[in-house]
Amino acid sequence: MRVLIVDDSRIIRNGLKNIFLFLGHNVIGEAVTGFEAINMYKTLSPDLVTMDISMPMRQGIKDGVSALKEIIDLDPNAKVIMVTSHGEEHLVVDSIKLGAKGYILKPITEEKVINSIEKIFPDDWMN
Fold it and tell me: If we measure between CA atoms, which residue out of 80, 72, 73, 125 comes closest to residue 101?
């Protein structure tokens, strides 16, 4: 699977990258902002996107929910998993309504990533 990781935290990006690589997937890109995520989605066409739900929105830089909406507008079949913290439940609900396929609650673990992937790709996701 080809994965795009979007998070403004280098620690979270590295953690997710290590998990996906350990599971045998290809991390084809990493974005720090929603704006970068949209552009990378257009050029890379990943199979899966992990999107930080609460990246700061400033100076025209899109947050995770805004970036999700634009990616879904570009590709209604996009597979996006939101990455979230406690206290952001309303944003998770909004994201699911917009088209996100699931979410991962921080702190991120291999088990949480596997559970999220299995819900989106129930067959052959390990290959």
Answer: 80
Q: Round to whole Å and give the CA distance between 104 and 83.
A: 5
Buried/exposed code over 38-49 (b: 16+ C-beta within 10 A; e: otherwise):
bebbeeeebbbb
What is the dihedral sign for C-alpha 76, 79, 84, 88? positive
Per residue in 15-30, pLDDT (tens digit) is: 999 999 999 999 999 9
Rounded Cα distance, 39 and 25, in Å? 21
Residues, the chain: 127
The pTM of the whole model exceeds 0.85:
yes
